[in-house]
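Reopening this one. Same input as before:
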Amino acid sequence: MTASHAATAPSLAATQRRIWMLAWPIMLSNITVPLLGLADSAVLAHLPDPQHLGAVAIGAQLFTLLLWSFGFLRMGTTALTARAAGAQQPLQVIQSLQHSLWLVMPICLLVMAAAFVALPWLLPVMGGSADVQSGAAEYLSIRLLSAPAVLAQYALTGWFIGLGKTYVPLLILTLVNSLNALLDYLLVFHVGMTSDGVALGSVLADYSGLAAALYFARRHGLQSLGTRPPLATLRPLLRINRHLFVRTLCLLLVFAFFTAQGARMGELTLATNALLITALLLISNALDGFSHAAESLTGHSLGRANTSQLRRTLLLTALNMLLLASLLTLLLWLAGPYLLSLMTNQPELLPQLQRYQHYLFWLPLVGVASYWLDGVFIGAQASSAMRNAMLAAALLVFLPVWWLTREWGNDGLWWAFYAFLLARALFALNTFLALWRRPQNFM
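Same output, byte for byte:
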């Protein structure tokens, strides 16, 4: 580290304040994500026929599955933007967003192709009556129209996180969810639509969110998309996104395998695991605030070649995430019975949840290291290490542990999942130590 860097490096207290300023908008915006599904469900639950609620539940899950596969667009944009912002390269900052937005349309074509191929056999797998599946197909035919807006928002959200402007995604998500709830009400109760109205409301809200995101991007320097970039200039983004796509696909397959094995043990086990995994996603959303702060500040520190600030960032984001994970575990332990009663009132399901509730209680502490390292590695542009750790954890740990503990039933499945989360961090440890000891290799 140079003398000028030593003189200007923020103190621990200043870095902590910066971490919290970046983290709290992400935490708050992540809380609003479940509200989108809650608004859809609340409106449809007031209709006399419950099939519409089932149709939207299935359709929304499949839509999320398709789009989440391409969530690398957010992470890759964050990685390049944070590095360019830290190095004070305004042209590269703008180009990182322009290049990501140019990738949206090709990725949209992949999403549509995947939907065309996969949905005809995925819909029956999701279950439900013929009317429910028909409604889900209708919902998806409308909802997929918003794929360009959702993917573009991935890129824009990643850009704002890379810049350290995490309050912007909060404003956009608040707008999208509020508008979606209002449109649901108007289209269902005043226009007479059902699940198709919920889908249309989501499409209109998504494009309104995109318009708002572009407005904020223009205020932060984006004047146009520019000319179509040559392939050579896209290679850094494509390289990062390629690794992240494989990593995300592997994670989705682990969840799919977990769900499939639970289904083989019966409907009660399937429902129990589904509720616990849903709670896991809420836990990861809470921890994501500090993970995104690690992405942004790690990239900025490496862009400035500021090793002292990098180590402060690594230390404080780790401590913050560990503290939050400990508090979540304590909260889940104390509020467990009340939480389970909120999740379901079915008399046959509640005992199953109580039997496996301890796996939920310890999930924040078991998964915190892998979540934190994901944020650090995105900021360090170490996407290949993320991919390798995910593949190794899935193939060398998750599947073997599941195989060896099959006689334990659902307990064995959960122990395999625990081992998978811990192994992700373990296989990434060597790269992290290299970043800590020799950060210049990542600059």
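So the earlier flakiness isn't reproducible anymore. For the record, DSSP finds 17 helices and no strands in the chain.
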